[in-house]
Amino acid sequence: MTADAARRLPRWVPWLLMIAYVLPGFVGRDPWRGDDLNAFAVMLDMAHGGPWWTPQVLGEAAKTLAWLPYWLGAWAMQALPLPGALAARVPFIALLGLTLAATWYATYRLACHPGAQPLRPAFGDDVPPGDYARALADGALLGLVATLGLARLAHEIAPSAAQLAFGAGLFYAVSLGLRAQAPQPARAAWEPLALWWLSAWGWALSGAPGLMALVSCAGLVWWRRAGVPWPRLWIAALGSIAAALAVWLLAAAAERATDLWRPYWHVWGNATAWVDGLRQLAWFWWPTAPFALWTLWRWRGRWREAHIGWPATVVALVLLVTLHDGGDERTLLHALPPLATLAAFALPTLRRGVNALIDWFAVLFFTGAAVLIWLIWVAMQTGVPPKPAANVARLVPGFEPTVEVALLLPAMAMSAAWLGVVLWRLGRHAPALWKGLVLSASGVTLNWVLLMTLWLPLLDWGLGQAPVSRRIAALIPAGDCVLVHGLDAARIAGLQYHGGLTVRRVTHPDADACRWLVANPADFPGLARAIDLAGWQLRTEVPRLRENREKWLVFERVERADAAL
């Protein structure tokens, strides 16, 4: 290992990369269907006066028991003078930044261990341990950004994004406590415990107390192996136990205590579930998983040391829980920070030819993906080539593309920056540990920025609830309230946020004051049992996108004599 190889990234590079990676996806887009919009619905309900201790949407309990993410989003919507969707994302911008920072610092601390240091060179100066650790930490940060499974899920305001951040915080807290137990200042001794407590409570209150307990137990074992005194071990254990117990009591108060542990009661899945889970790993953990496997092979005699054993333990626990839980990709998220740390320790052992192969793959793959994104955008704007334009019109009917300068300029700037990075990498420069991951991290960031700029209006139209919500709102006279039946939290939030409607369920005490009803045709028998349809007349069917897919029924209350006519 030479000093040139262990040099650190210029500080402006990771900061610029983090800004380009974090902000797109949070700023400027609508909440999308799924967990993103479901979580926003709960936050919207809390911000408008709903109960904070029992997360719900119009009286119906939320699907996921996760208090802290909902509280953060609702508080931000009340406190910040921003549009509701953007305000709710502000805490999650900070949480994603916390995830990246915790991964960097955890890798730095682990790389400072004596067992992680490189051999002294026969000629030349020794590599300072701090420089070597910073170079590996830079590689871990680049590897985390380059992981394909992180981009979409980490940019949601769902509870899983908060779990990821606090899980990374606990990973860093344990890594910080694993340093040599020489006499230390009081602040250095208690800092890991404070981080442990904050992360354990945040992780548990974000809806994953079981996984938090497993990782905490593993962390206690590694702390004991490192010689951490028993009083600190008991304090750390008390923090984890108290967090899990508090979440259990909150869930019991909401009469949903069993929901917290039900995933861990499942019988181990069948062979099909295991195969599906392994297939998902192939793309979700790319490209950090191959690096991590190479680390485990090349460092196979050092698995008992903290810099390899601790991150490998966390990855193994998350993988077991994921396979046990049916291959949930949101559980897989928790393995990404320690996986990036493992991947970083592969960098000193890679040969130059392997690095060149990885770089050429990154150039070809990410450049091809970027060209495809630009090609489809041009087809949307001009109709040429005709086949991509026809496919977009068929899949997203009603969408009218426009050229938005505010979205086009960042896409052009990022594309030019990608060309600059490629030319820099192809040049003859002194080798650096992190050099092999620069193109992968930059390529993921490039394509994420292109999707969140060039394709953002298309994705908002196809994945959001704004178009159908506004079409329904146009049918409702101003000031009238709307009853809903068979609509999930995401659809209700769309009517409230995008449509600006006052929405109530058919079981609401003041339901008789509402003249309009929006229902899901899939639950029409349940609607007939819930209300007397003789007093309602179907006015129209509103498709969400295509006529042969999801439709919403819009009814108007009428007198019985009118209904008979």
From TrEMBL:
Keywords attached to this entry: Membrane, Transmembrane, Transmembrane helix
Residue spans crossing the bilayer: 12-28, 86-106, 200-221, 233-254, 280-297, 309-326, 332-350, 357-377, 405-424, 436-458
Protein name: Lipid IV(A) 4-amino-4-deoxy-L-arabinosyltransferase
Biological classification of the source: Bacteria, Pseudomonadati, Pseudomonadota, Betaproteobacteria, Burkholderiales
